[in-house]
């Protein structure tokens, strides 16, 4: 799933970390802290839940890439994604578009 925003990659990540935490923690069994892994400073980041790996995979990854008109935000689902947690991630992303 991909979304676009007029925000820079840095601004999008700054918005997404607390928005994803709030939406995730509202529905998940276990609260999570979210971190951004820098792939290319100011150009590309992966946001993942710290400590939420299942079978060596993140439960999901939100990728933020810089584009000409702002940023592209992509949601990649890992294993064991329930519909409620998938919707929570969509809601967190929507809060930052």
Properties at a glance:
97 residues; alpha+beta; five-stranded antiparallel sheet; two-stranded antiparallel sheet; 7 strands; globular
Task: List strands and helices in order, with pairings.
Elements (H helix, E strand, L loop, with lengths): L1 E4 L3 H19 L5 E8 L3 E7 L2 E2 L2 E2 L1 E8 L2 E8 L5 H12 L3
Antiparallel strand pairs: 1-7, 2-3, 3-6, 4-5, 6-7
Helix pairs in contact: 1-2
Kindly report the oligomeric state of this protein.
single chain
Largest sheet: 5 strands, antiparallel
**How many runs of DSSP E, i.e. beta strands?**
7
Rounded mean pLDDT is 89
Strand content: 35-45%
Q: Number of helical segments?
A: 2
Task: Provide the helix percentage.
Answer: 25-40%
Structural class comes to alpha+beta
Low-confidence stretches: none
Order of strands side by side in the largest beta sheet?
1-7-6-3-2
Q: Specify the overall morphology.
A: globular
H/E element string?
Answer: EHEEEEEEH
Distance N to C terminus? 14 Å
Rg, alpha carbons: 12 Å
Description:
With 97 residues, the protein is of the alpha+beta class. The protein has helices spanning 9-27, 83-94; strands at 2-5, 33-40, 44-50, 53-54, 57-58, 60-67, 70-77. The strands form 2 sheets. The protein has a 5-stranded antiparallel beta sheet with strand order 1-7-6-3-2, covered by helices on one side. A two-stranded antiparallel ribbon has the order 4-5. Strand 4 (53-54) and strand 5 form a beta hairpin. Helix 1 (9-27) packs antiparallel against helix 2 (83-94). The longest helix is centred in the N-terminal third of the chain and has 19 residues, at 9-27. The mean pLDDT is 89.
């Amino acid at each position: 799933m991909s979304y676009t925003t007029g925000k820079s990659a840095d601004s999008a990540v700054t918005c997404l970390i607390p928005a994803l935490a709030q939406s995730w923690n509202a529905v998940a069994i276990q609260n999570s802290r979210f971190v951004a892994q820098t792939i290319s400073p100011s150009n590309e980041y992966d946001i993942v839940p710290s400590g939420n790996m299942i079978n060596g995979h993140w439960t999901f990854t939100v990728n933020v890439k810089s584009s000409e008109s702002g940023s592209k935000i992509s949601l990649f689902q890992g294993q064991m994604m329930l519909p409620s947690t998938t919707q929570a991630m969509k809601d967190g992303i929507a809060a930052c578009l």
